[in-house]
Design goal:
about 450 residues, mainly beta, Beta-Lactamase, Immunoglobulin-like, nine-stranded mixed sheet, about 15% helix, AP2_Mu_C_sf, membrane, protein transport, Clathrin_mu
Length: about 450
Amino acid sequence: MFSQIFILSPRGDTIINRDFRSDLPKSTPETFFRQAKTYSGDANPLFTVDCIQFAHIKRGGLYIVGTSRFNLQPAMSLELLDRLAKEIKDFCGVINEEVLRKNFILIYEILDESFDFGYPQLMATEQIKPLIVNDPIQPQPDSVMNSLRPKIQTFNIFVPNTIGSQAVQRSVLNKNQANEIFVDIYEKLNVLFNSSAYVINQSIEGCIQMTSFLQGNPPLKLALNEDLQIGRQQGQYSAGVTLDDCNFHECVNANELDMNKTLRIQPPDGQFVVMNYRISGDYAAPFRLFPIIEEVSSSKIEVTIKLKACFDAKIIASYANVRIPIPKQTANAYPELVKNAQLETAEYDSNKKMVEWQIKKLCGGQERSLKIKLTLQATQTAHTARKEIGPIAMNFEIPMFNVSRLQIKYLRIEERGNTTNPHRWVRYITQSSSYVCRI
């Protein structure tokens, strides 16, 4: 179906770009925009440039575009883009450039749940709503209604006895409560492998989350990597940490981020997300899956899956779960683990036609193997049944590890005269969002 789905601003800036198949050049959005501007009015909803099929709709002044190397079905392509626009509007309330930039992580999550390798999966809001984790970030009312609201003169109606706007920042904690702050860096990985364990597509969706129990809510200074870079330029390679996009909580002052790599924070009580970010491009995937399929006879197949942990031996992954779909015409499936396999289980679910392999503990550098012996029904042959095996999906969590190498250098209290030394807890967690290997 679609090779790419991207959203462009009226100026041609790329706001969202999800590349499902990596079979088109990086300059495809620029090619579309140049062609669209050649029309005297609105561009045709479907056209072809350099053997690339473009289908697009326009919502809120933005171009929502789907591309393909192959012929697109006109009505179906436009219908899918329209449904995608409705999903985005249902979650965000309105479609415009500011809203999409503030909610880019949510938009990518909607795309990943709605499409799989460019093919439509769940195209209704009620279907993907239980699967969406991120909450929408609402823009300021003035920015949304600026073009509709007439300019009027305003007066200060507050009297000296009125409570100041800083009241929301005042601590309501008990003075005897522990004076501490927790900082978590969460990263969710989206990785797609082929049968040779070669990465086809990958990205990271991460956030820095704080839970503050500081008495008095003093201002904070958070320092990140010195080699941090915001924005990836085409053809430019950076040995440091490069974020494609990021956005910040309203209590964060990011004016010094480009120069000093620091954030100034006026924390509210409780939990809040300091920064959301997204990283695409090459990075070292923590796990590699190597599937091997052998046709033993016309009615029997053996599937061997090797799992390798590609991180330091001091790091331990917890609760790794691998799911292997098998042919619907399978009569019996016998999963076999390697001898002396500890903290591992493998079970066959005959109703779901799936083998589930669970590993409770996996240290870095280790390898695990699973062999599945399939016996097919008489109506199915091994040659045709092997096409129904997979794709393999994996879920995992790795504490105290992050793929992007984004680090917290220090966290300081900036309030003058403050001699308290609160407890600071920093934690790194890497999880799988969509970790898939094709067979």
